[in-house]
Amino acid sequence: MTDHELISTACVPAKDGFYISTRVGPSREKIVAAEMDQVLAWRIDTFKVKGDAAPLSTTTPVTIDGSVDTAEFALLRPDGTVEYPDGSSISIGGGARLRLVDDKL
């Protein structure tokens, strides 16, 4: 057995209003609507990690192009918060979020 073993994979539909941008670098450039994709589902992979009693699960956004295969992305939530994989987030506010999403549509 390697350090981890895949136990299961599940895919659940995403609620409307989640978008991601994979054109995000360490400087947290401004998110551009044309670079966003709507999150259609969430892929949940559950692993058994060698030496751990409890399994570990990871959640990955899925867009029209498939699963996001990079750790560098920004997630725009329905409440106007932009969240990054490292746990940091910024609030762009509801009005700015609506303008950003309207620009995409």
Helix count from the secondary structure assignment: 1
Number of strands: 9
Q: What number of domains?
A: 1
Helicity level? 10-25%
Beta-strand residue percentage: 35-45%
Q: Return the average pLDDT rounded to an integer.
A: 77
CA radius of gyration: 16 Å
Strand order of the largest sheet: 3-2-7-8-9
Q: Characterize the biggest β-sheet.
A: 5 strands, antiparallel
Shape: elongated
Q: Element order, helices and strands?
A: EEEEEEEEEH
Low-pLDDT parts are: none
Gap between N and C termini: 47 Å
Structural class: mainly beta
Write the layout of secondary structure elements.
Elements: E1 4-13, E2 19-21, E3 36-38, E4 41-49, E5 56-63, E6 66-67, E7 74-76, E8 81-83, E9 89-91, H1 93-104
Antiparallel strand pairs: 1-4, 2-3, 2-7, 4-5, 5-6, 7-8, 8-9
Overview in brief:
By secondary structure, the protein is mostly beta strands.
Can you put this structure into words, describing what you see?
The structure is a single chain. The protein is mainly beta and 105 residues long. It has one domain. It has one helix and nine strands. Strand 5 and strand 6 form a beta hairpin. The longest helix has 12 residues. The mean pLDDT is 77.
Structural key phrases:
five-stranded antiparallel beta sheet; 1 helix
